[in-house]
Structure prediction request, 172 residues.
Amino acid sequence: MKYPVREGLAKAQRSAVHLEMRDSYTPDDPEFARWRAGYRYGNDPEKLPDWWGSWRDLVTEATARGVLIRRARIVSEPITEYIRYEHDLTFANVASGELVRWLPRRQAADIALPGTDLWMFDGSEVLFTYFSGVGEVVDREWRTEPSVVDLVSSAFEAVWERATPHEEYKPV
Prediction:
C-alpha cells in the first residue's frame, strides 16, 4: 500500500471525499520551507512543485470519468502558517477539478467527527490516515464496515453543508 490514496482515486467510479482536520502536516516538507522563505505560487501552475503534475493528472482523469472529488478542511482560526500555505496552494486543487471547502473549527464543534483525517471512495471504502503529534504520517487503514462508512458519510456531509467554498473563504 505505497500510494493508497492514489490507488483509491484511480479505482473510484462516482465519488471521493477527503476530510482534513489537522492544523499542520509534514513540518519538514521542503516545499513548505520554500513557501515559508517567501516563495509564492501566484495562482501560476508553472510554479508548482514537480510532484503536483502527477496528482493533477490523476484528479483530472478521475473527474473526466465522472468522479466527484470533494475536499473539506476543518481549521482553527486564526489559522496556522501551514494552513495559510495550503490555502495559497489550493488554487491548483480547484483547477484540477476538486471542489474544496473550509470550515472554521468553532463551527464544527457540534458535529460528530472521526478521530483522524480520511478519504472515502464511492461511499463504501474509507482510508484513515494516522499522524504523529507533529503531523507526519505514521499509518493508514482501510475500513469498510457499514457503521464506519455511515459515520464518515454523515460527518463529511455535515461539514460540507456548513463549510465555505474555497473561492469565498478568507483566512483569518
About this structure: Strands lie at 15-20, 68-75, 99-104, 118-121, 125-131, 137-143, 164-165. The two ends are 37 Å apart (CA to CA). Residues 111 and 155 are 7 Å apart (CA to CA). Helices lie at 4-11, 30-36, 52-64, 81-96, 146-162.
